[in-house]
Amino acid sequence: MSILVWILVFLAAFCFMEFMAWFTHKYVMHGFLWSLHKDHHHKDHNSWWERNDLFFVFYAVISMSCIMLHDPITFWVGKPIGFGILAYGIAYFIVHDIFIHQRFKLFRNVNHWYAKGVRRAHKIHHKHLDKSKGECFGMLFVPFKYFKQ
């Protein structure tokens, strides 16, 4: 297998996860599994762990399964897909949980226009405490209107 094909599959999986994050957030988290996601919008407990974190666990299991089920002949795309999902999960955790929600006190003083736009968009989404309303978007492709100075 060519390394170029492996890299392209990895990048495709990473980019597809941006769509999956938007789709899952809009139709699953703010839909039939709102009961798991609502503690992310309105914290009703004292734990660091949120029920919402189960969505992270779900995608981690998919990523690990693809990597472990990899077979050079029958499922050669398992590793690049699994590592693409893993890379997206790491990026999402850094941007969403660390940078935006400050679950760890890092990146507090970032003052870049893109970072401000991502924070602004997320804050607008979180001003709604119920499952309807509130714009849903991915982590990387945030609507341009949030980047105004």
Report on this structure.
With 149 residues, the protein is mainly α. The protein has a domain at 3-38 and 50-110. The chain contains 5 helices and no strands. The protein has helices at residues 3-32, 34-41, 54-68, 78-100, 113-126. The radius of gyration is 17 Å and the shape is globular. The termini are far apart. The model has no long low-confidence stretch (mean pLDDT 82).
Furnish the topology, listing elements before pairings:
Elements: H1 3-32, H2 34-41, H3 54-68, H4 78-100, H5 113-126
Structural key phrases:
149 residues, mainly alpha, 0% strand, globular
The topology string of helices and strands comes to HHHHH
- Number of DSSP strand runs: 0
Report strand %. under 5%
Largest sheet: none
Oligomer: single chain
End-to-end distance: 47 Å
Let me know the average pLDDT: 82
- Radius of gyration equals 17 Å
Q: Note the total helix count.
A: 5
Specify the helix fraction band: 55-70%
Look at the helices and sheets and give the structural class.
mainly alpha
As residue ranges, the low-confidence spans are none
Can you summarize this structure?
Helix content is 60%, strand content 0%. It is mostly helical and 149 residues long.
